[in-house]
Specification:
With 161 residues, this protein is of the alpha+beta class. It has 3 helices and 7 strands; from the N terminus they run βααββββββα. The longest helix is centred in the N-terminal third of the chain and has 26 residues. The radius of gyration is 19 Å and the shape is elongated. The protein starts with 5 loop residues before the first strand and ends in a 9-residue tail after the last helix. The model has no long low-confidence stretch (mean pLDDT 85).
């Protein structure tokens, strides 16, 4: 039996990769701003470079927010950082078990997008990436146990795949 709460722990290599990419992106932001504002580029290229310079800090913020919000499985529900690495968007999600209608698995190429896909009662979807977690099996096991306990108590019947 899993004892709650369970906190996800990101793999060391994943954390280092995120930190290095944040430094690189901030460097690219400085270069892009310099290129755009110093007149090194012209016309449409200047606007594209300026747009990239303004977007890259958001990408860094998403990475920092994700590292600062490890998954947390509690008896009341779960908290995690819903992210979509393909479009670099994300936000913190706090879901009560009652808000979740269905939980499925998400298998991505090269394990980059392996995780749990939640369908919420309001029809929206959220994705918890479990591939970068050092204790992936423990976190997924805790979610399965909590979800199974709710289903056994007359709660939702859509179980994990």
């Amino acid at each position: 039996m899993t004892v709650l709460p369970v906190v996800g722990v990101y793999r060391g290599a994943f954390v280092r990769m995120q930190q290095v990419s944040m430094v690189v992106l901030l460097g690219l932001t400085v270069v892009a701003l310099w290129l755009s504002l110093s007149g090194q580029t012209e016309g449409l290229v200047s606007w594209v470079v300026l747009g990239a310079a303004l977007y890259l800090p958001y990408v860094v913020w998403v990475g920092r927010a994700m590292l600062g919000t490890p998954p947390l499985v509690r008896a009341e529900g779960l908290r995690f950082f819903h992210s979509d690495p393909q479009v670099f968007s994300g936000r913190e999600m706090q879901l009560a078990w009652e808000e979740i209608r269905e939980i499925g698995t998400e298998d991505g190429t090269a394990d980059r997008r392996r995780g749990l896909a939640f369908t919420l009662v309001n029809g929206k979807k959220a994705l918890l990436l479990t591939a970068p977690l050092e204790n992936e099996a423990e976190v997924v096991g805790a979610i399965r146990a909590a979800w199974g306990a709710r289903a056994g108590a007359g709660g939702p019947t859509a179980m994990l795949n």
